[in-house]
Amino acid sequence: MKKAILILLAVALVAPVFARDVDAFVGVSWVEANMAKPGVVILDVRKVDDYKAGHIPGAVNVVGLYIASEGLSNEVPAADDLSEILAEAGIDAKSTVVVVEADGGARFAWATRVAWTLVYAGIPNVTILDGGYAEWTKAAKAVATGFESKDEATFEVKFVDSYIAKKDYIIKNLKKIQVLDARVYDTYFGISKQAFVDQLGHIPGAFSLPTAWITVGGLVRPKAELEAILASTKLSPKKEVVIHCDSGVLATGWWWVMTQQLGWTKVSSYDGSAQEISKDPAVKFVKYTWK
To answer: Could you report how far apart the first and last alpha carbons of the chain are, in Å?
Structure first.
């Protein structure tokens, strides 16, 4: 009996513990079956005109969940502003929020960026419609037009600090943490870069794993495939992982998969990403190397 108890304790210590009551990704059938339930908010984050032209019935449209701030392109709004935006959309800390983007290909990381922002703000039950609105229309489901709204909720942001990485912390701990670069290979290798990133190449020692690999044909790859892809990097789930990209969007793709679907517990997303850290003289990017 004592041995059995010890085994159960060991399993409890290593097994992922989820605060969420919904899977990280859901399909069209799940949305259709749950969209009218109390507490479920369908959050359409496409452009306003696209939303007006057609959306999932009952969905509310919200923009402004990532903003330009202090020279950086995609930052989290201030706590007061974010609290107001989400409360006006009918969202509170107990809501189950379904994030809907245009599709699961080019717009996939924009969906994870919104989803990451919501859980970072203190809403644990957030999921993403796999394939986005394109998958909904492909299934010939009902569509509404115009604007819809929900009764305003009461919500105050409570940021989960462990979900976000800051530049000073990364620089100070660069030799201790595992850095995951979620950009495409050409950018990581130093062949090309975004105009707003000051250096070619990547942070010394960073692992490369493009976010684009998460989906195929507009849908998220099976869990076993994602686990195999991640295993190929030799990243250790026992050590801290900081994920970055160019401006803090692509980074959230692997953050969402690793933490919300696969159960990694020591992963943070770097909001400022290469756009910020490449400007710091303390960090010299390296080119033409895979590590």
So the answer is: 48
- What is the C-alpha to C-alpha distance for residues 255 and 115, in angstroms, rounded to an integer? 10
Q: Determine how many CB atoms are found less than 10 A away from the CB of residue 3.
A: 7
Q: How many Å apart are CA 13 and CA 22, to the nearest integer?
A: 22
| 31 and 80 share one domain | yes
What Rg do the C-alpha atoms of the chain give, in angstroms?
19
- Cβ count within 10 A of residue 116: 29
Report the C-alpha gap between 214 and 210 in whole angstroms: 8
Give the tens place of pLDDT for each residue, 116-141.
999 999 999 999 999 999 999 999 99
Task: Please enumerate in sequence order all residues whose Cβ is within 8 A of that of 166, keeping only pairs 6 or more positions apart, or say none.
Answer: 270, 272
Residue 266 belongs to a domain: yes
Tokens of 258: 């690793």
- Helical residues (DSSP H) of 124-272, grouped into ranges: 132-138, 167-172, 185-189, 223-231, 251-255
- Its domain, for residue 218, covers 161-277
Report whether 245 contacts 251 (CB < 8 A).
Answer: yes
Tell whether 116 and 26 lie within a shared domain.
yes
| Distinct helix (H) and strand (E) counts, the chain | 11, 14
- Render pLDDT for 148-205 as a digit per residue (tens, 0 to 9): 999 999 999 999 999 999 999 999 999 999 999 999 999 999 999 999 999 999 999 9
- 179 - beta bridge partners? 242
Assess whether 192 and 123 both reside in one domain.
no
Q: Indicate which CATH number applies to the domain containing 112.
A: 3.40.250.10
Same domain, 103 and 206: no
287 in a structural domain = no
Output the six-digit token pair for 128: 């993403």
Contact 205, 241 (CB under 8 A): no
